[in-house]
Amino acid sequence: MVDASTVKELRERTGAGMMDCKKALVETNGDIEKAIEYLREKGLAAAAKKAGRIAAEGLIGTYVSDDKKVGAIVEINCETDFVAKNQEFIDFVNSMAKLIVDRKLDTLEQLLETDYNGMKVREALSSLIAKIGENMAIRRFEKFVEDNGAIVSYIHGGGRIGTLVQLESSVVNDELIELGKDIAMQIAAMNPLYVKESDVPNEYIEKEREILKVQAMNEGKKPEVVEKMIEGRLKKQLKEICLLDQLFVKDGERTVGKLLSDKSKEMGTEISVKRFVRFEKGEGIQKKEDNFVEEVMSQIKK
């Protein structure tokens, strides 16, 4: 006979439903540790059934160490926005970002095999899938390390967009961190692709030149003015995709490059953006589009 207190303890430790806990204890003759193993096995099986569903919602999470020297950004996907607002899912996302920093992880495979709350991350994710009832996936993460400067992060829209910025500076203080936050917000809002023009690959520039040339010819422009038009339009485009050439969103009177220059003079040290990363949830994932008519017809045929 399984008593109620044991069922309650198992439920608290696993998060599984009451009836599932009771069944697990019956199957394992009341051994709570074996019951946990039993539920985890069932959780893994349940998770596998959900693995085919498209997970394009989710959250971006970030974590930066107290000394601002190491930071991580991670994207974890789920199927619906409703689950993305679930506190347990939110806590899991933030825990993964911290785990990446604390355990000095570099690859997704390392993360999945890392110990977390008495199990592997891979198993913890499967248990969460079984408990909440949606497919989930740890899609990607980036980690920055900066000994001579600081890492700063920013989360926008409750986790819809996240950015991580690596600043190089001999002085690390509140003023630098505040500057980093402004730049991280800029990246979230304006989505630059590169730090500066010299970072843009030649292949990208040549491809854009070809596209702009065809556009100009289609507009009926004379050959002698086409080249000037191409260079003018290309220059404008590069300013839009390079962080340092973008107008600073907070005042619009100076570029981000000028902002860095001004702050460098104020603080008496050279400040530069070494690199950045911007994650937007679900970008590049093809979402499933349900066809209502087909769905109704399939039900009728049944």
Automatic annotation (TrEMBL):
Compartment list: Cytoplasm
Region annotated Involved in Mg(2+) ion dislocation from EF-Tu, chain positions: 80-83
UniProt cross-references to Gene3D superfamilies, sorted A to Z: 1.10.286.20, DNA helicase RuvA subunit, C-terminal domain, Elongation factor Ts, dimerisation domain
Keywords, comma-separated and alphabetical: Cytoplasm, Elongation factor, Protein biosynthesis
GO MF terms held by the record: translation elongation factor activity
Pfam families in UniProt: EF_TS
Keyword Isomerase part of the UniProt annotation: no
Gene Ontology CC terms: cytoplasm
InterPro entries xrefs: EF-Ts_dimer_sf (IPR036402), Transl_elong_EFTs/EF1B (IPR001816), Transl_elong_EFTs/EF1B_dimer (IPR014039), Transl_elong_Ts_CS (IPR018101), UBA-like_sf (IPR009060)
PANTHER family associated with the record: ELONGATION FACTOR TS, ELONGATION FACTOR TS, MITOCHONDRIAL
Family the UniProt entry places it in: Belongs to the EF-Ts family.
Protein name, per record: Elongation factor Ts
